[in-house]
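Open question from group meeting: does this chain pack into something compact, or does most of it stay loose? Before anyone orders reagents, we agreed to write out a predicted structure and look at it together. Recording both the input and the output here so the notebook holds the full record.
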Amino acid sequence: MSEEQLKAFLEKVKTDTSLQEKLKAAASPDAAVEIAKDAGFAITAEDIQSMQSATVEVSDEELEGAAGGGNTCTFIGPFRTCF
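Structure tokens returned:
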């Protein structure tokens, strides 16, 4: 359940500039958890840490975006996301 919540939260972050700004200011995974909680999502600091420690693979779409100036991937607080 928590992984689903994390994925749903990250999808919302992609389109919600207010959440993006809050997460940029987040000083810790715990702060990001509180931001997610306030937005109605149930995630844990362990979920964030697990996501951070997972091997990051770049998709063909992300590679094309980087080469052609399309998608922009960034870290927002403790999250890596692409717009």
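Observations to bring back to the group:
The CA atoms of residues 59 and 65 lie 10 Å apart.
The mean pLDDT is 76.
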